[in-house]
Amino acid sequence: MSESADRRYGPATLPTARGPLSAAVVQALRHPPHDLPADLGIGLYPSDPITDEDLQLTLFLCYELHYRGWLGVDESWEWQPTLLALRARCERVFETALRRLVGAPSVPAAGVAAGLAELVAADDGPALAATLQRSADLTQFREFVAHRSVYHLREADPHSWALPRLGGPAKAALVEIQTDEYGNGRLDRMHAELFRSTLDRLGLDTGYGAHIDVVPAVTLATNNLMSLFGLHRRLRGALLGHLAAFEMTSSLPNRRYGNGLRRLGFDEVATRFYDEHVEADAVHEQIAAHDMCGGLVRVEPALASDVLFGAAAGLAVDRLFAAHLLDSWAAGRSSLRPPAPPAVPPKVSLVAAPAVASPAPSALV
Ligand SMILES: [Fe+2]
Ligand SMILES: [Fe+2]
């Protein structure tokens, strides 16, 4: 297999740090697992955690160990206790910020599916899809695709964390949705693979995680949100609510994205990912709201408000993401970070990697 083929499915290369915390984690991950300084991240509370580059990259670094891992990083880091403790500190900051952002949505008497429909109807986010359909130029469209690649190249994976945590109707509905997302077991129909073709047609790197270094914190936050919900069983209601909101706001924007690419002269290979979602997600939104979230709350009524919290948080962070792109373009700027941000040396003291901690991995970077 060629080097480029190897990179399609991950793991990705460790990204460049964006501040002292992420620098400490990147530096640590280059060595065999060892204890991090006990005070790392204590007292952390950036003014805006959702758009804080250092916090969001630190979370992303930790979460990715549970997906594809990082190239050359010892896989035992996934359950290293002091790294998990640091992740927990970052998660508390992130979750607190999310709850401040959306409050505690109340569940209407008509039920959780009606509550989801209300949230989606009230979603007056910036018109990113309309801009991409009507006026975005090729550079802007490529930026949008690079941002979204962080999720779409592992599409559906974060929500699959819910599968072993559910039984009954919600599980059956989630399986029905995920089966489509994974192409009914056909590689060439997996949504992640359809998106890889879009990247390829637009002349972008198709490797897993290839664009992590250039996407800003708010893009990482849209991903970290799913991982936060997915990796904590207590947040399974929020995870399903997030997926429902995702599906309920997907069909029309995807039609617009496809039309935008056609306007720019791209063929059906480039647009297939978006075209596929127009009809699929019109079906998924019904399954997600009624069968999946409704089914969950019938079995576990106490999770209703969590479902709406997850949906509201997903919509709110996506609004911030859309606003970032549109504001950047309106100001004549790229919405991406510079390609090679300077490395920031850690300001925290690091515990030296032990000389013999565990068997060295075969390919430390
Ligand atoms: Fe999909
Ligand atoms: Fe879907």
From TrEMBL:
Domain of life: Bacteria
Protein name per its UniProtKB record: Iron-containing redox enzyme
